[in-house]
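#structure-requests
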Amino acid sequence: MVYKIFFLSILGVVMNFSAFGSSKESKVLVYPKSRQDAQVDVYHGIAVKDPYRYLEDPDKEETKTWVKAQNQLTFDYLSQIPQREKIRKRLESLWNYERYGLVFKKAGRYFFSKNNGLQNQSAVYIFEKLGETPSLLLDPNKLSDNGTVALNFYIPSEDGKLLAYGLSQAGSDWVDIKVLDIETGKELSDHLKWIKFSEVSWLPDSSGFYYSCYEKPEEGVFESLNVNQKIYFHQIGHPQKEDLLVYERPDHKEWFFSSHVTEDGKFLVISVLKGSASENAIFYKKIDEIKTTYELFSKFDAKVKYVGNEENLFWFQTDKGAHKGRIIEVDLNFPEEGNWKELIPESVDTLQDATLIGEQFVLTYLKDVHSQIHFFNLDGSFQKELILPSLGAVRGFSGKKLDFETFYIFTSFTSPETVYRYDFESKKSEIFFQPTFPLSLKEFEIKQVFYSSLDGTKIPMFIVSRKDLLLDGKNPVLLAGYGGFNISVEPFFSTEVAAWLEMGGVFVLANIRGGGEYGEAWHSAGNLENKQNCFDDFISAAEWLISEKITSPSKLAIYGGSNGGLLVGACMIQRPELFGAVVPAVGVLDMLRYQKFTIGWAWVPEYGSSEKANQFAYLYKYSPLHNIQSGTAYPPTLILTGDHDDRVVPAHSFKFAATMQGAQEGESPILIRIETSAGHGAGKPISKVIDETADKLAFLIKQLQM
């Protein structure tokens, strides 16, 4: 993501590009040799070359040599940008402020994470009573010298005496689960391995928990396909090999499972996903007859989420019959659709989340990409709206049905994450923790505009800039987007964006189709055969910014990560003349082979598969890797990836960089920065985040001649 700062006065220097002569100096760059082989694949009668196939193997000596040479070139280049070190130091000072995570209560204790400023990882603390001094419970910074062991999750037992927590290493999605005695601070013997895409759900008596895991990969831990997930029950004090297999579906190896024990402890609710598809199924088991499975929602024709229950009356959030979401009541004794009772009907705004706390429903809506919080009684009648500080985003509201308090976090582009406590008796919120950011953000403002895409669809877009922004076409702009997997990108706070603003930049977020900002219809308008709409929306955002004289092509940079990396990669290939710099991070760039690695197969419901002729046709048409044209002058590009990314494997970026470097006709640099001991992004140590951000911003100010 991205941030902002007014930088010239801070640096106290005039930009000096004498080290490379001008901002267009890649003709003096000598790229590492990328050997081409004769690999050709035939898809539905069409021959497709894949000359850098060997780069898919990260353990191959040739690949390691290539990675080392590419990093050498990139870091040599970046080191000669005079402002790079001053940017890094400024980022370090901006990141050095105390930050709280969401507070939640369990058995009278209050748990939360906190980072003192420059700690590589946030640590876990507890309050025995609000207002008292918190005590340190778990510090992952002590588990590695370089901060690459990250806390993936932490979940206390129902009696508040034990803590199950997940640890990941070097950015991997693989997690080890361990258990801590909260009273003594001692680690128990419990140690579970090969966990991925799972948390835990405790039994009420805290004797054990349910979790999902895979079999140990036979080879290629960071490349092997992840299939056949299973649900197990782990009894505290017993080895993992004795865990009870609760549910598996070898006939549907692509199914994912998440399990949740209901608050009354009587049911295990299982959510079933087919890869990344929005639609899911809901099954359940009675805890006292765990071998029997009841399929409640089994058609995979809608998104369904368990909210709460009273005995056999269950409440669900669903977009079945309401693409923006609603709340229904289902009696397990009469579960047929004709017997469902609608408690809270679909709104004009998108229902993002629903929880049951304090004998009421707390619903989070998205209204034109900013949060609104509404409270409803259990009969579905409206109670009140929570007034928020400004246009922004809210997350939180966890708790139990009879709790009298809950916590939530509010944030926006110019407001660091602030923790609030809400009292259900007084119906009032109060600030629990408000961070002190080391930069005043009062001189910046947030505007939301709606522009027209190629087909006339109105797309919302946030523009964050100085209040006195001049419309002279000379402003350096960083345009970001995502547009996929039904994920809504709401206003967020980022130290990187704050730094960019302070440097004199403008930050822009385009809420393109493919996301979930306006419900399932908005998502489906930007996936599968409609994916080109995402690129059209993003390109139209760039054209609008230029036509409104906010910026110009030479001053416009684009950035995106993961699916957003696909977005900016495709847009750069389709319209290279439109951008002054491009930063694709951990991007999905090979659309013909992405499904062959780790969890890539799960994205087929989002993208389609080259194994199907009709889907191959549109994938091949926009796949960034396969549409690079030799002899084209592409804009300056800094590709970012991690050598341990086992979600979007680094082969995407490796092959893309090699192909781009071989095709580049212009003088602009094509560089790849490969972070070591790092994965897809989650859990990355602050020290590595600061270094990567400094390199990204240094690259941008050089290419945009700020």
